[in-house]
Amino acid sequence: MKKNIRFSLQLIGTFLFSYFYVLMLQLTLQYVPLKKNIAFLQIKQTEVSEIPFYITFFYIHVYTAIFVLLAGFFQFSDILLKKHPATHRNIGKFYVFTVLLFSAPSGLFIGLFANGGLFAKISFVALSIYWFYFTLKGFTAIKNKNILKHKAFMLRSFALTFSAVTLRFWKVILVYLFHPAPMDLYQIIAWLGWIPNLLIVEYYLYNQLKK
């Protein structure tokens, strides 16, 4: 019975992730080929023209985040872990080094110029720092063969990776229900995009410890 429930949950999770991933892929493809005034960049023209390297860091973030989102999801596969551990390790290395070298640093840089004022900027900068920290701790834990710690920190890391999806999910919900002013919306989703993700993971880890 438990096995059936677990399988059903995995199936639902895979379906939902696939759906949201396709949406994220469509958003990312808006930036192919590289342009300076497309989609979100249309409201960031001041930063594009006046902030050195803004467009470079923006595209590094956009182009790498879509791959780490997919790589991180595959790391939850029991089949991959048990039957193809080498593939699990290689995808994990790709995830870790892409987040540490590209996605998190570029996220921190563009977070400094986020819409929504200081309140939103603090959130995006904190998100990037935690993302980097959790990923690094997950990597060092497995290097030290501490599997429990590795799983805990990689779950936290992926919770923040998945904020790319949840941020946009909350944006759609809030706009549909409350029609907030654009700046208010940015301030809310800046925090709502990742704090609940992290709380859910912490609740899961807490319950795992009690077993």
Query: Roughly what percent helix?
Result: over 70%
Shape: globular
Distance between the termini: 19 Å
Radius of gyration: 18 Å
SS strand fraction: under 5%
Could you spell the SSE succession in H and E letters? HHHHHHHHHH
Structural class: mainly alpha
Largest sheet: none
Catalogue the unreliable spans: none
Q: Overall pLDDT, averaged?
A: 93
| Count of alpha and pi helical runs | 10
How many beta-strand elements? 0
Give an overview in words:
The chain contains 10 helices and no strands. By secondary structure, it is an all-alpha fold. The two termini are 19 Å apart. It has helices at 2-29, 45-50, 54-74, 78-83, 85-111, 117-143, 147-161, 163-178, 182-192, 195-210. Helix content is 82%, strand content 0%.
Give a quick set of tags describing it:
211 residues; 10 helices; 0% strand
Question: How does the SSE layout of this entry go?
Answer:
Elements: H1 2-29, H2 45-50, H3 54-74, H4 78-83, H5 85-111, H6 117-143, H7 147-161, H8 163-178, H9 182-192, H10 195-210
Give a quick rundown of the structure:
The chain has 211 residues and is mainly alpha-helical. The chain has ten helices and no strands. The chain is 82% helix and 0% strand.
